[in-house]
Amino acid sequence: MPAPTSPADLFRHGLRLLLDKDIAAWVGLWSDDGVMEFPFAPPGWPARLAGKEAVAAYMRDYPDHIDLRDFPDLKIHETTEPETIVVEMRGTGRVVRTGDPFDMTYIAVVTVRDGRICAYRDYWNPLAVLEPGADFTRSGR
After folding, report:
1. Chain centroid to CA 64: how far?
2. 34 by DSSP, 3-state: which?
3. Residue 134 contacts by C-beta under 8 Å, 6 or more apart in sequence?
4. What is the residue extent of each domain of the chain?
5. Residue 49's closest CA among 124, 125, 123, 121?
6. 7-130 is classed in which CATH architecture?
7. d(Cα 26, Cα 39) in Å, to the nearest integer?
8. % helix / strand / coil in the chain, to the nearest 5?
């Protein structure tokens, strides 16, 4: 695939990598000093990951917990800042341990600099981790 040319293209490419469970390649889309934030993180969960290595450690085991199958309802909104997009999406699949359905709605604010993700604010639903039978880990949802 040719190198993504816009923040929206880079984001879409990243979603494809997540569906392919290629976490290493997804992390490769990040700048070394990239920051991932979770403004609604529940107590005991990380609210901020500073640096590509921290993001890699957080995401490393994600496919062992969540088997993502699709991102339906994807909407990418450009902003007045050309490097920043706002994304509305759902991630669907299954919880690996239980086989239960996984269906999470997200809002993300993503900033790209020099073709790499440098900031990602992930507004996911923290109540989902409190639902009976939820099998999420603190290292990767």
Report:
1. 15
2. strand
3. 95, 128
4. 7-130
5. 121
6. Roll (3.10)
7. 21
8. 25, 40, 35
Query: Any residues with CB less than 8 A from the CB of 123 and at least 6 apart, and which?
Result: 39, 40, 106, 107, 108, 109
Provide the greatest CA pair distance for the chain: 43
Contact 120, 110 (CB under 8 A): yes
Q: Which amino acid is at 114?
A: D
pLDDT for 7-18, tens place per residue? 999 999 999 999
Q: Which helix (H) or strand (E) holds 19?
A: helix 7-19
The span from the CA of 93 to the CA of 76, in Å, is 21
Residues in the chain: 141
Tens of pLDDT along 26-57?
999 999 999 999 999 888 889 999 999 999 99
Grouping H, G, I as helix, E, B as strand and the rest as coil, residue 41 is coil
Strand partners, 104: 91
